[in-house]
Amino acid sequence: MNKDSFYPIGTPGTPWGPGEVAKWRSQQQVQRSYADDVVRKIDRLRERFDVEEYGQLDYGSDAFPLYAVRSRNWDDQLPSVLLTGGVHGYETSGVHGALQFLDRHAAEYAGRVNLLVAPCVSPWAYERIQRWNVDAVDPNRSFVKDSASGESAAVMELVAPLRDKLLVHVDLHETTDTDESEFRPALAARDGKSSEPGEIPDGFYLVGDSEDPQPGFQQAIIDAVAEVTHIAPADASGEIIGTKMVAPGVINYPVKSLGLCAGVSNARYRTTTEVYPDSPRATPQQCNGAQVAAVRAAIDYALAQQA
User: How far is the first Cα of the chain from the last one, in angstroms, to the nearest whole number?
Assistant: First the structure.
C-alpha cells in the first residue's frame, strides 16, 4: 500500500472520530476463543502455579478476565522475571510461547527465580486476530500514565509492586505480513496520515532499549533462537522495520518514551521478541519454540551475570 492508497474506513487526511472507530469495530469478527485456547491452558497450570485474576475487561456484552501466573513458592530473596505475551492479540506465538514455557520449562527455574507471566494481555484482540483493542487503541503504545488502554493499565497495576525489583522482562511479539497489508495502513488512516510502503523482515529479531541496550544479553538470546529458527537480516539500508540494526537481529527503541510494554518496569535486562510466523521457513511450533528459547536464554544470561 502506498501513500495514495485508500483505506476503506475514513477520509484520507482526516483522523478518525467515534463514527469511524465504531465502523472499524463492527468489522472485527471473532475468529478464535480466548476461553478455549488460553484460559483452559492456564487452568491446567493451577496445580503447579498460583493463578490470579488481575483485572477484567468489560466491552459491552464481552467480558474478559485477565490472568497472571506466578511461581507458587514466591521468595522475595530471589530475582524475579516478568513475561508478557499477547499485548497485540494477533501475535499468536507470544501467547502460546509463554504458556509453553510455563508448562515445559518453568520447573527448571524453581528456587532460582520468581516468575510472573501475563500470557494474553489483550484477549479481545486475541479472539479477533487484531492489533488494537476495542477502541482502536494500540496497547503497545499505551504503557503510560492515564493510559487509554485498559489492557495496558491492568498490566501496569499488576507489575507496579515489582517495578524496581525485576531482573528480567521479556515481552513476546510477532511481526507479520499483515503489519504491512492491514495494520500500518489502518494506523495511517486512523491518524489521518499517509501510509508509506515498508518491508517485513524475514526472520526473528529483537527490540532492545536504546537507553539501556545490554548488547550481551540481546546476543545471548539471538544465539539461542538461531538454533530454532532463522534470524532476520538487515534490509538494503542496514535497517529492520526502518531502524538501524545495531547487531545481527537487534534494533533498539526508547521503550519507555514510546509507551512500550518492555518499559513497564525498571528490569535490568529487558527485550521485545519479534517472531516472523509468515515465513515459509517457519512452522507454528518453531515460532512457539523460538519464544521459549528466547525466554530461557534471557533468564540463563541474567542469572549467569548474577553469579
Answer: 50
What is the Cα–Cα distance from 255 to 12, expressed in whole angstroms?
30
Taking phi over 0 as left and psi of -120 to 50 as alpha, with beta for the rest, 143 belongs to: beta
> How is the chain split into domains, by residue range?
18-306
Q: Is 76 exposed, middle or buried (0-12, 13-18, 19+ CB in 10 A)?
A: exposed
pLDDT tens for each residue of 161-207: 999 999 999 999 999 999 999 999 999 999 999 988 889 999 999 99
Is the CATH code 3.40.640.10 the one for domain 18-306? no
Please check whether residue 262 is in contact with residue 272, taking contact to mean a CB–CB distance below 8 angstroms.
yes
Residues lower than pLDDT 50 in the chain: 1-4
AA letter at 110: A
pTM above 0.85, yes or no: yes
